Amino acid sequence: MKPVLALVGRPNVGKSTLFNRLTKSRDAIVADFAGLTRDRHYGNGKQGRQEFIVIDTGGFEPDASAGIYKEMAKQTQQAVAEADMVIFVVDARGGLSAQDHDIAKYLRKIGKPTLLVANKAEGMLEGIQLTEFYELGLGEVIAISAAHGQGTRGLVELAFESLNLPDEPEETEDDPSVIKLAVAGRPNVGKSTLINTWLGEERLVAFDMPGTTRDAISVPFEKQGQKFELIDTAGLRRKGKVFEAIEKFSVVKTLQAIESANVVLLLLDAEQGVTDQDAHIAGYALESGRAMVLAVNKWDAVDEYQRQLVQRSIETRLPFLSFANMHFISAKKRQGLGPVWASIVQAHKAAMCKMSTPILTRLLLEAVQFQSPQRGGMFRPKLRYAHQGGMNPPVIVVHGNSLEHVTDTYKRFLEGRFRKAFNLSGTPLRIEMKTSTNPFAGKEAS
Hints:
single chain; 446 residues; alpha/beta; 6-stranded mixed beta sheet; 12 helices; 32% helix; 23% strand
């Protein structure tokens, strides 16, 4: 699993700047929670071969008891709960504040591994100006400048060392006969209820309230001779251990479960339709290249008008999942679950499909003969042959000349032909264009 780093601190100390520096982006990739100042954002970072997840949080007031500050505190506490390492950011130029002391007290109390980082320290003498931050009792003060990129690489390396990560990411061989299935969706959409229904027993705790569970757990399961590993992306929480102070929906566990799965079953709520959070989860699964199946739960609880609204919202808000089979189910009443299994197996089969080079090339040439690509400038792209470049998701590499001029529309046309020929329903399909280089380019005529 990727290590998780949470950035916490009072407002305006540069947490978001550091987030952007570590993720090399300016966007949160998943789960933008409502409220501009109290969001927690999730991003992917990579240093060397080690990938990691970064959580950015709003300003933190641990003792806030009401209003927006209480909500911000809840978001930050959730981020800390999900993290492997907390990076506590203070302002080297603004100096120490009472709020910094409150945050430090909270972090010492929970005992989570923490690095104390003094941001905006460019051009400062560390031994003098940063001395006051040792009062926080969190060990060594690490001076960085997120805006200028100074010290950020060393910060990540120190975080990895503190977590005792292996030098190289562990590569474990999975049993190819077992389908890893992640059940993903918003809180209270019925994920645990669905898995309990499949298993025929109350293996996962299910309550009629959002955010019941916190950690991703996997359950081995076999159906009609096919072995599965079911991953409930929200996970199990015992009844007696309720964390009222934090929101119990663990986005990190959802991201990690999606990345480790072969197939993602995205569960939607017929009563609420498609939300931003559904779209974020779906987008992340697509970005990860996972095969997908859509299931709309609580279908029995809505009337015909609401059903039409739900179907329309899926078409308009999730058009990028047109390759995924969709089913309308009731986990509680065990309705419509049979076809879901068939789609899951089909999606996995499609994701692991092997495509021979001669057949791919023949399909490519037939497609070009049926419809040639548009001319780009003086040249028309020439598509010569194709081969498979990977599985899970399938990747088709097309070789030829002037392929940089091939339009997205034409790529979608090719995708449709390949999908139909190999029955690739349920999986993303990536098409890469590789232009052949001229071996005589740049050589002077003799």
